């Protein structure tokens, strides 16, 4: 028996726009917390049909030791909790910035407890 590939259903344009609007609004709500430590959060791309969202941490986040925890424990958790259609959050840090410049932008003051 051959494997069957299931393509995600195409959503109506109105639903796609609604989802993208919700995502942008939520990203904008999270940005001030990241910016308070000299960083920033950017939406790189989103496939609202499959639920895959790509984000990038910028600024001081590029040299921050807890940036991976911020992505997983913060950004991904919030997006998946508040937007049930989000299936996966991928991300990274802006690696084009000079590490010394990144470090000079600020340091994280919040360390999550696990």
Polypeptide structure, described:
The chain is α+β, with helices and mostly antiparallel strands and 114 residues long. The protein has a single domain (13-104), classed as Fe-S cluster assembly (FSCA) (GMP Synthetase, Chain A, domain 3), CATH 3.30.300.130. It has three helices and three strands; from the N terminus they run H-E-E-H-E-H. It has helices at residues 13-35, 67-82, 99-104; strands at residues 39-47, 52-59, 88-93. The chain has a three-stranded mixed beta sheet. Strand 1 and strand 2 (52-59) form a beta hairpin. The longest helix is centred in the N-terminal third of the chain and has 23 residues, at 13-35. The radius of gyration is 16 Å and the shape is elongated.
* Proportion of residues in helical segments: 25-40%
Class based on secondary structure composition and strand pairing: alpha+beta
What's the domain count? Answer: 1
What Rg, in angstroms, do the CA atoms define? 16 Å
Key terms:
114 residues; GMP Synthetase, Chain A, domain 3; disordered C terminus; 39% helix; elongated; alpha+beta
Secondary structure: elements and pairs:
Layout: H1 13-35, E1 39-47, E2 52-59, H2 67-82, E3 88-93, H3 99-104
Parallel strand pairs: 2-3
Antiparallel strand pairs: 1-2
């Amino acid at each position: 028996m051959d494997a069957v590939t299931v393509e995600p259903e195409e959503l109506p344009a109105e639903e796609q726009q609604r989802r993208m609007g919700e995502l942008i609004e939520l990203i904008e709500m999270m940005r001030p917390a990241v910016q308070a430590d000299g960083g920033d959060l950017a939406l790189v791309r989103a496939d609202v049909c499959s639920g895959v969202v790509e984000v990038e941490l910028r600024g001081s986040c590029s040299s921050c030791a807890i940036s991976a925890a911020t992505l997983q424990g913060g950004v991904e958790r919030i997006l998946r909790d508040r937007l049930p259609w989000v299936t996966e959050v991928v991300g990274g840090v802006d690696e084009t910035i000079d590490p010394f410049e990144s470090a000079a932008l600020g340091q994280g003051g919040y360390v999550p407890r696990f």
